[in-house]
Design brief:
six-stranded antiparallel beta sheet
């Protein structure tokens, strides 16, 4: 069965935390929830300007094991660091990439774009992209995306190409 999964980012204060520059923000838990198929491993990847800076394995959240409820088994990232990649007069920007491996040795990727207000760093907006969104790059129709996302979509394409070479 082909893997289908959902990536959820929590904006609730107290659910997860991440470090961004000199700030620690008490939200940002990331859940990777399988809908169909099975996930073998999930990794968070720091990638910028053609360099892989860090690879972090994401742990399986096993709250459902006690009740034998497979629907409650998912991967959860609760503490991590995001690098400040760009800024405007009002926002900071950063990205985190996810690599998901299923039990049939297929790899799927996601890019999470973080937009953090300078005045109120607890105000975090995210946009989550998947492999299909790379069509914006191939069709050269990136102008429909926000400016930072346009640049990062090219980075996402480079990372995807690197993964295809290695895996």
């Amino acid at each position: 069965m082909k893997l289908n999964y959902q990536v959820k980012f929590s904006n609730k204060t107290g659910e997860g935390k991440f470090k961004f520059d000199d700030y620690e923000i008490s939200k940002g838990q990331i859940d990777i929830i399988p809908k169909t198929g099975g996930i073998e491993k999930v990794y968070a990847v720091h990638y910028y300007k053609n360099n892989i800076k860090a690879i972090l394995p994401i742990e399986l959240y096993t709250n459902g094991i006690d009740s034998y409820n497979a629907q409650r088994l998912y991967y959860q990232l609760t503490g991590y660091t995001i690098d400040k990649i760009a800024q405007t007069p009002h926002e900071y920007y950063g990205t985190l990439y996810l690599v998901v491996k299923d039990y049939q040795n297929n790899y799927f990727t996601n890019m999470i774009v973080y937009e953090i207000q300078k005045e109120n760093t607890s105000n975090v907006k995210t946009r989550i992209y998947s492999d299909i969104d790379l069509l914006y790059v191939y069709n050269k129709n990136i102008s429909v995306l926000p400016e930072f996302d346009t640049n990062q979509m090219r980075e996402y394409q480079y990372l995807k190409n690197k993964l295809n070479e290695i895996l």
